Structures are given as structure tokens and as C-alpha cells.
Amino acid sequence: MTTDNTDRHFKGQQRSEVVVYYTRKHWITQIYLFIEIIAFTLVFGALIFVAVYLKEVAHIGELMIAAVVAMTVWLHHIFTGFLNYFLGIIVITNFRVIILEKSIYIKDDKDVVDLHEIQDIKKIQHGIIPNLLNYGKLVVVVPTMIQPMIINAIGDPEKFFRKINNAKRDYIHERQQQRLKMLAGNNQTDYEVSRAT
Amino acid sequence: MLWLAGIHIVSIIFTAITIWLMIRYIKRYELPREQYSKLWGFLRIRYVLVLYAVTTVAWAGITMGLFFLTIEA
Q1: Please, what CATH class does the domain formed by A19-25+88-196 belong to?
Q2: pLDDT tens digits for A74-96?
Q3: Are B52 and A69 within 8 A, CB to CB?
Q4: Which residues of A touch B (CB under 8 A)?
């Protein structure tokens, strides 16, 4: 009995669909959050300085409350940014390649291409930093699409490139095997009929 | 001071809702464990969630304490 994999690992997963490989974007996409953390810490230090040494300034209480509100929103922005990183994944299954771009509240996008529709795959890894940190871009060319599917900032793009190629090859091989079985089944039926008559 | 308390209550509720949504999504759509990779080699989702909760509460405590000890004093 085959396992029912409907919505097992991601929303929209089909019944007999198996996850071959998945990955998230490279951590370099989150570097801006680091910069924001450092900036937040500096602003917090400035806030303490103002509260301790400038408390005699007029309306300082109201200004402090406004600053705390702004910094609270900023803090939530930083953490939701980190959490959104974990929600965005690129999945290779035995049927297709899926890019899931999701955020907690705002976004829920999905881009899908079937393996048999893929004509060409390019791995692009230009520059000193991408090669040092091992991240790059994959371009998946599909004849039926006006623009190719571009997957930016993939960590270890060589591995992902190989996984897509292998998944595509396995998919084609399996389809061929199924066709051969169907043909063999039809041929046997014709033979038995001819023997009986 | 009351304004500040109100802001932090809303902030903590927002954090609780975010963490709940995140946990619900992860439980519903669990990806294959053998392929799981941590951010920078050590950061898992649960660490970020715990850090988020602790930071939000600590931020509320620190700012209210700072306000009380300096401005209100």
C-alpha cells in the first residue's frame, strides 16, 4: 500500500509526491538583519543616555514613549525577518521543482515547474563573495514560460544543480519504464488471444 | 507609564500570536528531518522563537524600568 503524502511536507504536496531534496536561501540574504541588530543596539544605548542625562529636557517623556514605540516595532521587524527566512524553501520532488516564498502574515507565493518541462538548467556563481561563501543563482529554462525561473541566493548551488538533474533523469526513466510495462502488458494480451484462437 | 504598559502588552500579544502561527505551520508541514540544516550551523527555529519571546518580555521590562527610574523619578 502506497503512503498518502497529500500536504505532508508542504501545502499542495500530491498523493504520490516524494520530497527528494529541499533547501533554504543562503544566510547572506539575512545579513541586513545583522546590521539592523547592531543599529538597534546603538540606538538603545543612545536611548539610555538620553533618559539618564537629558531627563530635564521639555517633553522628554513623550519623546521617550515615541522612541520606545518605534523601537518595539523595529524589534518585531527583526525577529519576523528571521522567522520568515525559515518559511521560504525550494523543494525538489519526484514530479516538480517548487519555490515556496512565504511570510508569517503577508506573503504566500508558490512557483512550480514540472520536471519533464525543464529544458535547460544554468548555474551562475559570479564574484568573489559568492564563490567564497558558496552561493549562487540557478536559472531553470522552460520552453512554455516567457521568462525562465530564477532561483537567487541558493546555498551550495552545485548540489542543487545535481539534484535537479538527477530528479529529472529519474523522472524520465520512470516514465519510460511505465510505458514499457504498458506495452509489454498489451503485447502479452495479444499473444494469449492469438494462442487461444 | 500607562501608555508604555499598553504598548508592551500589545507587543507581547503580537509575539505570542506570531509564535503560535509559526509552531502551527511547522507542525502541519514538517520537512524531512534528515535534510534539515541550521542557520549558520547552529540556529534552529525553536531557538529563534524562544529568543523572540524572551527578548520581547525583557525589552518591556527594561524600557519600563528605565522610564520609571529616570523620567518618572
Answers
A1: mainly beta
A2: 999 999 999 999 888 899 999 99
A3: no
A4: 7-11, 19, 21-24, 27, 30, 47-48, 51-52, 55, 60-61, 64-65, 68-69, 71-72, 75-76, 79-80, 82-83, 85-87, 89, 104-105
